[in-house]
Amino acid sequence: MVGADGLSAAVKKEADAALNAHGLIKVRVFADDRSAREAMFQTLADELSAAPIQHIGKLLVLWRPMPEREKAIDADRMPGPRDFKVLKYSTRGGQRPEVKTLRVLGNQRLTAGGQVKRSKPKQVSIKKRSQT
Known about the structure:
26% helix
């Protein structure tokens, strides 16, 4: 929002941050003079290297392509351990079930019986093995 102070450095800084985060922003200007609003619109577009999209009343719409963000991909990273609660019922009917917390690693799975099993490597057909 552009208030009584006009187009200040703080407004430009916030508009730049919003364009970096979202790409398309709307700026509301509280000035009553249409020519002053159009001048602010062009000034913002030029200084922020954004495209002036629309000017409806006191609302200005600016667009700038969002910068590409680098994603940190760690190829060696494995899934972390997961904790599961397992109920083990006793053979006697009147006993409470025993609650155990099991930690399952990335290459393990939990069976229906509450046992932890290691996953086996995926089988590859003979035909695919000969191709590689």
